[in-house]
Amino acid sequence: MTTSCACRIENMNTIGSRIRQAREELGLSQTDVAHALKISPQAVQQWEDGKTSPRGGRLDALAAYLGKSKAWLSFGDRK
Length: 79
Prior knowledge:
Elements: H1 2-11, H2 15-25, H3 30-37, H4 41-49, H5 56-66, H6 70-75
C-alpha cells in the first residue's frame, strides 16, 4: 500500500498527471473535458500521457474548467 501511494506522489510531477488528477476529482471523462474545450478527446489523452501539453489559451481554459491554477497544472505550484 505504501508503494502505490509513493507512485501516486511521484506521478504528480508531470502536467499530464495533474490534469488527470484534477479531471478525476471532478468525476469528468476525457471526453467531457474535450467537449468543454472544443478539442478532441485524443488531445486530452495526449496531454495526460505526456505526449503533448496544453499551451496558451487552451491552458487558460483548461485551468478554469478544472478549477485549478495554471501554475499548479504546469508546475505543481500551490500558489
